[in-house]
Fold these 2 entries.
Entry 1:
Amino acid sequence: MLNFDFYSPARIVFGRGTEKEIGALLKPHASKVLLHYGGGSIKKSGLYDTVTASLKKAGIAFTELGGVQPNPRLTLVHEGIALCKREGVELILAVGGGSVIDSAKAIAMGVYYDGDIWDIYESGDSVSRALPVATVLTIPAAGSEASGDTVISNEAEELKYGYSSAHLRPLLSVMNPELFFTLPKEQLGYGVADIMSHVFERYFTNTTHTDLTDGLCETVLKTVIKNAPLALANMSDYDAWSEIGFAGMVAHNGLVGMGRDEDWACHMMEHELSAIYDIAHGAGLAVLTPAWMKYVYRDNISMFVQFAVNVMGVKGSYREPEAIILEGIERLSAFFRSLGLPSTLAELGIDDSKLELMAKKATNIHFGEESPIGGLKKLFWQDALAIYRLAR
Amino acid sequence: MLNFDFYSPARIVFGRGTEKEIGALLKPHASKVLLHYGGGSIKKSGLYDTVTASLKKAGIAFTELGGVQPNPRLTLVHEGIALCKREGVELILAVGGGSVIDSAKAIAMGVYYDGDIWDIYESGDSVSRALPVATVLTIPAAGSEASGDTVISNEAEELKYGYSSAHLRPLLSVMNPELFFTLPKEQLGYGVADIMSHVFERYFTNTTHTDLTDGLCETVLKTVIKNAPLALANMSDYDAWSEIGFAGMVAHNGLVGMGRDEDWACHMMEHELSAIYDIAHGAGLAVLTPAWMKYVYRDNISMFVQFAVNVMGVKGSYREPEAIILEGIERLSAFFRSLGLPSTLAELGIDDSKLELMAKKATNIHFGEESPIGGLKKLFWQDALAIYRLAR
């Protein structure tokens, strides 16, 4: 186990009816908020009315900015920053999924940053403050409701970069699984792939003596694998959505990766896909993850045997570890397919024309000095290219 | 799963050498602290010198109060409150185990409370503020380094009461498993019994649809069961102590009980034992827990089968669930014995003379109206008495 620093102060208010409490929950923290949301589904569902009524009841003034798209755009972030400055906003309330929350975080730090906030995503320089962010979660997937992470797309330059800061941890997040009932079925698959990937990026490691976090990771994965089919079969299954939603938070609040070298190669490679092709992050992860596994497993046979046995339930002879591993990967692929997720880049409409470009962007050699990605196995641009090709 | 509100903001700085950073970590938060500790083992071990050097280097002034005893006493708490008020202390740094931290929390809220702080333990009334508390943990057991809980003994009245408040969550806790190497071997057993009990009190529930937290609980338990014998065999096993220390924090920071009805009967009954007989909390729990299990398991056969199979590794016919359960309880008892823990009240020097008194105190009927304890099975005073008798 490695030394670690765990700090995850986001308060999670979970369960039926909790979105009605948002005004009372925010009252001690702000008198004027920016209500930030996506394409308007919250108006159709009635959630917009519930949230604004709760704010009004608590005497909290609000201004609003809708229109966040999946793979949230820098342009709208710029608009939000100007709006917050103009209106004297004290807190940003993101009502939506990971894209809305990530956009809110970008705005939150942009309010206190003198230059273009994209500089921070590009440089990775630290910020010293941000407006507080709160969330009403409508899609369990990104884990952004408890994390200090944000990912923004610079659509003009076809770039998608992540950024992390303790200042970006939401103050509080409200999670009512009933809000997930009306999601399109494909969102369930995307969300599950993202949640599982957040665990995989931490689980697959060369760090040893990690009994506790191994078990925590496996628990989150098994919980999602058990409950996703139940939610798919009945999109109003409160219990199944509760497990998926709670698991999504635990997958990404930092705990399950503490003391471990983390990986993150799949996320880096997926960001290149969605930056250029504007696909769903979860769909890209579902395609890339099994390919990545097939490419890297020989570097840590024991780790992948443990995954196949403990998570995917493979039984077999330990004297044939590769057979166990390949069966585990196949079961994962089959699980993703059962949720309607794609298995190949071709299914995503992605041809070979930009694989090399993406491999070189992911490893930075496209921009300058090569910076290999991944923790379990260091991947150079040729490795990334090989994985993209395996995923065709 | 039930609705829940999860808030666990304590920052955990974990690993080798981290105690040397305490001054730098506290510098943004306080310029004058109370250094609170126990019977002086930190002076023998050199930890006192390390911590005070770190405070001095950071320019943090300190006053000190040692002498915290196991089952920390109200008298010393009163002394600490007066000292903090007199000296203008801004933060309390607890260097020790759960007793020192619990004492620090009592002082922290006592500084802002006008009456006798014992009133708060007795009434359960909420407090509106407390001094911040930080910790350097020397015994993994109580989980007080991340929890909002404190337990204090009123030695004059032979009472031991707990109290909880979000204001009592430590600001930050430093945990270097190397500091556990010099613990007496019996402390390992006491700590493990306490950690496991913190999970049991949350794990054993009638709440259904708790896949995620079931698995988190089982992971913490299995991690401790695997690593405690390794630490016992080699008290300088850093990896084993790391797992136990991390598990002790996760066991009691609140996460593994979220969305579940909790139990806490064993803790309530144990507090009566240590209030009168001043025994180690972990020793009392090791004696009472198997007795409690034998008394209550018929009320939730499935829950106890899951425990026996998933945690204790029992294999057997599911058509004979009671045999599986009893084997699971026996394995737990054997595990406790293997760590040198007692199995009976007699081994603790406790005879029958006060069993009825303790049963009546635990359920409050001794003081007035009966208030049954426990979540999985409601226990009245006769039930508590029966469990004490089973533990003889």
Entry 2:
Amino acid sequence: MIAITILGNNSAIPAFGRNPTSQYLQTTESSFLIDCGEGTQIQLSKYKLKPSKISHILISHLHGDHYFGLIGLLTSMSLLNRKQDLHLYGPSALKDIIDLQLKVADTTLNYTLHFHSLKEEGVIAQTKKIEISCFKVQHRIECWGFLFKEIKNPRSIDIELAKSFEIPASYFEQLQKGEDYHTKKGTIISNEAVTIAANTPKTYAYCADTIFDISLIEKLKGVDLLYHESTYLKDLEERAAARYHSTTHQAATIAKMAGVKKLMIGHFSSKYESIDPFLNEAKEVFNETVLAIEGTCYKI
Amino acid sequence: MIAITILGNNSAIPAFGRNPTSQYLQTTESSFLIDCGEGTQIQLSKYKLKPSKISHILISHLHGDHYFGLIGLLTSMSLLNRKQDLHLYGPSALKDIIDLQLKVADTTLNYTLHFHSLKEEGVIAQTKKIEISCFKVQHRIECWGFLFKEIKNPRSIDIELAKSFEIPASYFEQLQKGEDYHTKKGTIISNEAVTIAANTPKTYAYCADTIFDISLIEKLKGVDLLYHESTYLKDLEERAAARYHSTTHQAATIAKMAGVKKLMIGHFSSKYESIDPFLNEAKEVFNETVLAIEGTCYKI
């Protein structure tokens, strides 16, 4: 299970009650924060999501609407007496900014902050439940997307069935490893006959600020949920390109061509009071679209 | 007229709906922002106060709850196409932080930001209506208080009265300069007889985070409104001292000994859900006390 709660869905300037980008991703094991615009710690509190549960924070790029809330969150975690390690991923200059702000405040964090500079595409973190990789997206400055893949669970033993085939409990460890069972009479009980397949691992891709870029399609193929920015409506394609952003139709085209199961769009420009037209336009191209709505939790 | 709107009254961590420190000070001429905790730009918008009216921003010190909202406000002003100059005052390292954050975002501001490093006590800015000076306060790191003094207006001419004394309009400029009028018959019409005194200039002192420090009294003598932090209730005097903060009784003692007209207390610790006890305790020492309440405008 992957559940994503939207903490902010707006671009650049907070407007019409919409906050800058941040998403809180939960698995049954721990939580992850993706981007951290100004006010994220207040949004976490508003939606009763515990900062203490966050084990990893991923920052896509160093435009303020994606990270100005980070230093406040990091220092608040310390003031709240966090002890467990925190892993932070982002462009290398992020460490300089944090170090400088802690230094001038004569502050040290209570907990260990492991900073991981994003340098090349590939797996950056793995827990028991999830694997995270990063990939490059094309924006005005260095910018990264993130792909979350559940770890494939092994098949589980159907104990009643295994017993009915007279497979001894002492063999269960080997069954778990995928081996077949050979009876004394020479019959082979295939592993699949007495084990149950785990749920298919789910995938979530987060495409931070990006220009319309078809080279992304290969990286996003078949994901269960794709978050793709859609800063503008379709009539502003030129402006979107000039600012390295995307439109509704462009985000939906990527989703369609990558054959994703569902698309979520966000990062709406502050120029729009209503975001309803975003949904209508995206659905013209890709019907399985939802809007990133603050406070809403999307489960995969 | 000086009017102060409270945008945040909490210390350290946002809690119980209270935001970190920021105050918006208005004169009839322009507006000033004092400190800028995270979320200040959202608070400005909530209380319908225009960032475009702000001509000067003053940052007392570099603990996050007093400036983490600054970079967001500065960049939003630029995105909102601000053109007029902005004057920013604070400890010198503040400039390094802003420069670094603009550099990594590959961003330049649309307007000219004049950074003034606070180095010694005295007048730091003067407009037509107000003079601002800074003074040192004792905190864990370099920290400044600010004193706002209205510029004394000249006396205004009582035109009807001046005419009744047959003072020609051509002499009004000299009257305005304070000169008496000599009639042809040799009588002296004193300046005070035909001019009206302006209102007494008002004063506002902002004591940012500070330990209980009686050396402040001399600097705050007789101000109309004193903002003094009161992070803790009176029973936590030891904790207050250890953290270079003050209690209710200490803030009220400073107000009483400095003979100020009114005291406003704020910077309440996140440990307190209700702030009502702060008012009761401060009034035990100095009756003319008010709480800094978010969204409330205090006029002098």
